[in-house]
Amino acid sequence: MSKKEKEYWDKIREDWRFKNPDYRIKGRLEGEEMRTVFKNIVQSRNFVSDFGATIKNIVGGRLKTYEKMMDEGVKEALYQLKKENPRVHNIRLQITEFKNASICITVYGEVNDA
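Request: output the structure for the sequence above.
Response:
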């Protein structure tokens, strides 16, 4: 991305933040203290599923084994986060690594300690 493009998109983001000042703090009261909590999990598939997905990747098409792996990983990460912090809200998800038939998922959110 060129410097001009970066400046353009930075300006767009700043304009949007100016027009929507509470986009990050929706539902938060003024002066309310929040802490961020997170949960990491690593999900993987077995060798046979990975081999089948590799063949499917060569021929083309949807990799349903990997889709299933990602769905299971996201559900498990959300379950673990909510189990440890029942009052968590503003939950966000980030897939940090996907290779060699394994995936690392980070789920994080905010908890009000009051």
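The radius of gyration is 19 Å.
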